[in-house]
Write a structure and sequence with these properties.
The protein is an alpha/beta fold. The protein has a single domain, classed as Amidase signature (AS) enzymes (Alpha-Beta Complex). It has 8 helices and 6 strands. The protein has a 6-stranded mixed sheet with strand order 1-3-2-4-6-5, with helices on both faces. Strand 2, helix 4 and strand 3 form a beta-alpha-beta unit. Helix 2 runs antiparallel to helix 3.
Length: 253
Amino acid sequence: MQYSTLQSIQADLYSGKITCRQLVEFYLKNIEEKNTKLNAFLSVYDQEALLKADEIDNKIKAGTAKKLAGMVLGIKDLLCYKDHVSQAGSKILAGFESQFNATAVQRVLDEDAIIIGRQNCDEFGMGSTNENSAFGACLNAVGENRVAGGSSGGSAVAVQADMCLASLGTDTGGSVRMPAGFCGLVGLKPTYSRVSRWGLIAYASSFDCIGPITKSVEDAAILLEVIAGKDEQDSTVSNLPVDEYAKLTSQRS
């Protein structure tokens, strides 16, 4: 079982070839086999992800599943996820649990994404190789002598090594784009104000952006479509309507 796009996953889900539970089990198995060496995930929400998978499977049967059904997603350790530890790659925040969901996190959950775990990053996003983490360096799956890029290194390596389909990272000066490039993936830094920063642990507030790391342009577009848009919690976010970015990718010549 190996997928590079949400479209291919959903084709198999809706035809009955696989279930969301089987999909999550596949990614959990890869995490168990690979993460000790690569150090991409800091926390894995195994039982929670399996329960969510069962919920999505029931929605698929009922015809009520939403846009991201079948997307198994990791989130960088700079994004708040209610009742889950958020440490920004630092021991300073040891034991801190988020009191609310980042807007981007809430929006992917609302569209039936499954969050499988919290991913390694340079401490407070300050780095470009993911070697500056209190939890140790994240290694590129290509080889131990290659860095993952940063600061969203864990988010990129997790996708690169098939430990999840996609990730949400953050980019201040290249922290989505560099690790995506180092790991052979698609990394998108949206235009500033396109995506709400509510729930993003700040590095440099007037530059920080939440962006997707994926295996395909189409999946980056789908994720941006979901997380973008106005937000009452963030006065700096754009109120302009959100385009159907996924449709734009299908119009490429």
